[in-house]
Amino acid sequence: MSRIGQKPIQLPAGVSVTVGEGNLVTVKGPKGELSVQVSPKLTVSVDGNVVTVARPDNDRVNRSQHGLARTLIANCVQGVSAGHSKSLDIIGVGYRATVEGNALVLNMGYSHPVRIDPVPGISFEVRSEDRNRLQRVVVSGIDKALVGQVAADIRKVRKPEPYKGKGIRYTGEVVRQKAGKRAAKK
């Protein structure tokens, strides 16, 4: 049995879920509207403020789709009610980020600044942390997959390098440091 698929989804106040033709689940809330296509073999039912996903049998494909469908619907519910965000830390001397209009501009040691225009539904915020002189870029929006993809694209601009740890990393990401040439001679 899928433990995740069995869990009911509680709907917060102001969020409504409708199941359309072909198992198209539409979630509306105060922050916007999201839709997710669920396998037609699964049954999605809405009872008051509780959404449940059921499968017809224990077939391997149905079992794999059960937990996935429940998680996708739960991500939509959280997105339209509270939103999703991912934060990245910029570490390195001279590396900095600014928000110009809606776009994020990164100065990462290249000969030119890197400009990242936001996808519709995504917003950027830059915070400065004084204690370690690091900057934190917060990517937020209602679609969890889109927030994660934009954050991954920002990280790709300058991945953290293994010798000094400079670059862009997710907040809380641990970068293993390698020993340099000097340590190898001993």
CATH superfamily of the largest domain: Ribosomal protein L6
Strand order of the largest sheet: 11-12-7-13
User: In terms of structural class, how would the helical and strand content be classed?
Assistant: alpha+beta
Report how far apart the termini are.
55 Å
CATH class of the largest domain: Alpha Beta
CATH architecture of the largest domain: Alpha-Beta Complex
Give the H and E element order: HEEEEEEHEEEEEEHEH
Mean pLDDT: 91
Radius of gyration: 21 Å
Shape: elongated
Helix content: 10-25%
Stretches with pLDDT under 50, minimum 5 residues: none
Number of helices: 4
The CATH topology assignment of the largest domain is: Outer Surface Protein A, domain 3
- Summed up, the domain count is 2
In percent terms, what proportion of residues is strand?
A: 35-45%
Major sheet summary line: 4 strands, antiparallel
DSSP summary, beta strand count? 13
